[in-house]
């Protein structure tokens, strides 16, 4: 059996917008009790960006279906299913990936 070690390097860049009037201190406290012990909006932005980079567009646990470039996701038909308090602006999702492949002996 042939085996290969692969390393993929890519760069994605997003702007995460969070409406702190909607996702206020009470929301942050409720989130901490159910999901992660995040204390800043920056930690939430990091989580949202990481989930987008790993899994692409889709439901994000704890946040729901969020706006993408100000629009509801294509697969959502009911506006009530969209968390409009969070918007992810796609600056760059790198299609030019650097891939290294090394055969393992």
Protein traits:
two-stranded antiparallel ribbon; 3-stranded mixed β-sheet; 35% strand; 105 residues; single chain; alpha+beta; 5 strands
Structural overview:
- The strands form 2 sheets. A 3-stranded mixed β-sheet has the order 2-4-3, with helices on one face.
- It is elongated, with a radius of gyration of 17 Å.
- It is built from 2 helices and 5 strands.
- The protein has one domain.
- It is an alpha+beta fold and 105 residues long.
- 6% of the residues are buried.
In N-to-C order, the SSE pattern is EEHHEEE
Number of strands: 5
Alpha carbon gyration radius: 17 Å
What is the share of helical residues? 10-25%
Largest sheet: 3 strands, mixed
Unreliably modeled segments: none
What is the overall number of helices?
Answer: 2
Structural shape: elongated
N- to C-terminal distance: 10 Å
Portion in strands: 35-45%
Number of self-contained structural domains: 1
Structural class: alpha+beta
Q: Numbering strands along the chain, what is their spatial order in the largest sheet?
A: 2-4-3
Report the average pLDDT across residues.
94
Summarize the structure.
The chain has 105 residues and is an alpha+beta fold. The protein has two helices and five strands. The strands form two sheets. It has a three-stranded mixed beta sheet with strand order 2-4-3, with helices on one face. A two-stranded antiparallel sheet has the order 1-5.
Q: What's the topology here?
A:
Layout: E1 3-9, E2 12-18, H1 25-34, H2 41-55, E3 65-68, E4 82-93, E5 98-104
Parallel strand pairs: 3-4
Antiparallel strand pairs: 1-5, 2-4
């Amino acid at each position: 059996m042939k085996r290969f070690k692969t390393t993929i390097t890519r760069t994605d860049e997003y702007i995460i917008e969070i409406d702190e009037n909607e996702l206020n201190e009470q929301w942050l406290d409720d989130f901490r009790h159910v999901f992660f012990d995040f204390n800043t909006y920056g930690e939430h932005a990091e989580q949202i960006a990481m989930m987008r980079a790993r899994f692409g567009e889709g439901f994000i646990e704890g946040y729901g279906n969020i706006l993408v470039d100000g629009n509801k996701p294509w697969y959502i038909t009911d506006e009530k299913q969209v968390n409009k308090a969070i918007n992810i602006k796609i600056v760059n999702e790198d299609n030019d990936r650097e891939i290294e492949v090394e055969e393992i002996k």
